[in-house]
Specification:
Blueprint lengths: L7 H4 L3 E2 L8 H22 L7 H10 L4 H29 L5 H23 L4 H11 L9 H9 L6 H32 L13 E2 L6 H21 L29 H8 L4 H13 L21 H18 L8 H33 L1
Antiparallel strand pairs: 1-2
Helix pairs in contact: 2-4, 2-8, 2-9, 3-4, 4-9, 5-6, 5-8, 10-11, 10-12, 12-13
Keywords: Electron transport, Heme, Iron, Membrane, Metal-binding, Mitochondrion, Mitochondrion inner membrane, Respiratory chain, Transmembrane, Transmembrane helix, Transport, Ubiquinone
Pfam family, one: Cytochrome_B
Protein name: Cytochrome b
């Protein structure tokens, strides 16, 4: 009879002894992914990808299907929780220099882009008023691409307007992409275990490692309990907390909502988009707002990995967080003064972080070298 611990496989994955609860968001994201996949499969069984029946099928799921309202609300709220966790995960990576594990960071950035695409396609599926018009605004951005824009838009729509073929394509993409995300997540996790986790000090963890279980697994269980409890509380008591009131009306191409906006987790990119009056410039800025994260490991210049020991960079980081929140807030407001100016200033500050951070790294290196 073997006396080995049943969780020996976790003991074979040692981690740094000083990693904090900020490192638990990875397991929370994995839990969100599994939850979204399971609830999404249930919803797909009852959903009808037809412009005349899509909205009614959502009502049917929430009213007639046993426990359908739980599945539908959990899937909708789970998307918001997913993005709360992933934005926190990215912020932690930027602060503690986790992006220096290049392969891990690049696969993670690719995952973010794919998650945003999946969430966008899913937001259109209920075929509510805001879903339809948000899809119209975003897909029309493709027309800004020189020469190919109109052709790409027509191909995506499956015609000359958003209709049945568009909804069918969005449903197919929303169903298929999660399986690609699961595969890419597996690669992301394998690369992470190959490279090893970073830590708050930004030092080499090999000299001081402890078993994953029980030291880190218990923190995982605590954070997962908080995540699941929060989701159940919102689903049970505030199911419409993150829904737009316009989306409770069936899509009507003849009636334009007073203020078109996407879900909250897209608002920072949407705010950057509409802060630029030029359509092509706004589209490029929208794409850059996410893809600029790819540059982080290639523009790191500081001797120190973590911002824990970078007093000049710390205010820069917190300015980025405040900027992200302010852009999100401004994007919920009408396109009029002073919100246009606020969005433009915040957009400038957002991109400035990725330019100023390496400059501050050079300055810090020079100061450190002169004091040696």
């Amino acid at each position: 009879m073997s006396n080995k611990h049943p969780l020996l496989m976790f003991n074979l994955l040692p981690v740094g002894s000083n990693i904090s609860s900020w490192w638990n968001f990875g397991s929370m994201l994995l839990t969100c992914l599994m939850l979204q996949t399971m609830t999404g499969f249930f919803l797909a069984i009852h959903y009808t990808a037809n412009v005349n029946l899509a909205f009614s099928s959502i009502i049917h799921i929430t009213r007639d299907v046993p426990f359908g309202w739980i599945m539908q609300n959990t899937h909708a709220i789970g998307a918001s929780m997913f993005f709360i966790c992933i934005y926190t995960h990215i912020a932690r990576g930027l602060y503690y220099g986790s992006y220096l594990n290049k392969e891990v960071w690049l696969t993670g950035t690719t995952l973010l882009i794919m998650l945003m695409a999946t969430a966008f396609f899913g937001y259109v599926l209920p075929w509510g008023q805001m879903s339809f018009w948000a899809a119209t605004v975003i897909t029309n951005l493709l027309t800004a691409i020189p020469y190919l824009g109109t052709t790409l838009t027509t191909w995506l729509w499956g015609g000359f307007s958003i209709n049945d073929p568009t909804l069918t394509r969005f449903f197919a993409l929303h169903f298929i992409l999660p399986f690609i995300i699961i595969s890419l997540s597996s690669i992301h996790i394998m690369l992470l275990h190959n490279e090893g986790s970073s830590n708050p000090l930004g030092t080499n963890s090999d000299i001081d490692k402890i078993p994953f279980h029980p030291y880190h697994s218990y923190k995982d269980m605590l954070m997962l309990s908080i995540l699941i409890t929060s989701m159940l509380m919102i689903t049970s008591f505030f199911p419409d907390l993150m829904n737009d009131p316009e989306n409770f009306s069936k899509a009507n191409p003849l009636v334009t909502p007073q203020h078109i906006k996407p879900e909250w987790y897209f608002l920072f990119a949407y705010g950057i988009l509409r802060s630029i009056p030029n359509k092509l410039g706004g589209t490029l800025a929208l794409l850059m707002s996410v893809t600029i994260l790819i540059s982080a490991p290639f523009t790191h210049t500081s001797y120190n990995r973590s911002m824990t020991f970078r007093p000049m960079a710390q205010p820069l980081f917190w300015t980025l967080i405040a900027t992200f929140i302010t852009i999100t807030w401004a994007a919920t407001k009408p396109v009029e003064p002073p919100f246009i100016l606020i969005s433009q200033v915040m957009s400038f500050l957002y991109f400035s972080f990725f330019i100023t951070n390496p400059i501050f790294g050079w300055v810090e290196n020079k100061i450190t070298h002169n004091n040696m």
